[in-house]
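A favour, since you know our structure tokens better than I do. What I am after is a single protein written out in full by you. Could you add the entry underneath, on a fresh line?


***
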Amino acid sequence: MAWWKVLAAGVVGGIAATAATSLYQALAAPAFGQDGGDGDPANVQAADSASELVAGRPVPKPGRQAAGSAVHYATGMALGIGYAVAATRAPAVTKGLGVPFGLGVALVLDDLLVPAFGWGDWPAETGAATHAYGLTTHAVFGAVLEGGRRLVLDALD
């Protein structure tokens, strides 16, 4: 398969999956008792970390939400590209319509990397509803990523 088709499928799938998770979170948060808390979400904190590394200061207030969204979508695209490449080389990655991949992303990002960078709590410090919210969010991510990847590849063939 042509590399550009795999890249396009990963980028489009990642963007679609990120948009779908944002919509899902907006709709599902109340059911899981998620109110956003008092602090900045992890994506905004990640943007701050990047800004401090590059510019020596956090993202200014007016641009915080946009910077957080940029981090969220960039992460989704990177994961989408990685998934599309992996699916091309090892089709078993797509079993379960991408949901196992999404759950793996939740475990690695939410439960390991986010707390390791200080952008959120460790799993033992959060409640069951928060874990369920994160897992269902990432299951949606994986399913939409796989669906988007397939649609793009079908359209390009």
User: Anything to note?
Assistant: The chain has one domain: 3-156.
